[in-house]
Design brief:
The chain has about 170 residues and is an alpha+beta fold. It has one domain. The chain contains 4 helices and 7 strands. The protein is elongated, with a radius of gyration of 21 Å. Bound molecules: zinc ion (ZN).
């Protein structure tokens, strides 16, 4: 399978006419909107795009994402591997068409004024749709063990670190 560089933008209408395919890999670190959910940004995902036109003359792209990412278990806060394998048909729509029901089986993907799709946004949306909201190890694999009792000092510390987090969040939102 030949491997391409990741394009920044794609023209689904143009590629669909000649049934193009694209195969490339993307590092999670280049997808800013999913970084928060993924403790190991060095994971790489394989991306395959298959362009085509369906029986109704509608251009589409089949997006296929594959790979293993590390998520954070919401019970023990340790990393847990999550295997991804998605396949979705995306139908390019302009802003005025988003709410129309002409889309059929696919999921709408927004094109800009020049008819192009932003690849980073497309991959981020796909990942955000696919990743579990609250990932957890199966119980028997989870590391969680509660300490017998929490000394008062520890509780104080916890409060402080949350205060620190609040500061951080405030800074980030400016
Ligand atoms: Zn766990």
């Amino acid at each position: 399978m030949k491997s391409d560089f990741m394009p920044l933008k794609i023209d689904i209408f143009k590629e669909a006419k000649t049934n193009q395919e694209m195969h490339f890999s993307v590092a999670v670190s280049s997808l800013p909107r999913v970084l928060e959910a993924l403790p190991d940004p060095s994971s790489e995902l394989g991306v395959s795009l298959f362009f085509g036109v369906d029986g109704d003359g509608q251009a589409y792209v089949d997006l296929n994402l594959k790979g293993t990412v590390q998520l954070m278990c919401q019970r023990c806060l340790a990393e847990m591997p999550f295997e991804l394998s998605t396949c979705h048909r995306l139908i390019p729509v302009s802003e005025s068409q988003v709410d129309s029901d002409l889309i059929g089986d696919g999921e709408p993907i927004l094109i800009d004024a020049s008819g192009l799709v932003d690849v980073v946004e497309m991959l981020e949306d796909e990942l955000l749709l696919t990743l579990p909201m609250c990932p957890m190890h199966p119980l028997e694999l989870c590391d969680l063990s509660f300490p017998e009792s929490l000394p008062v000092v520890e509780t104080e510390k916890t409060k402080k670190s949350f205060a620190g987090l609040a500061d951080l969040l405030n800074k980030n939102s400016i």
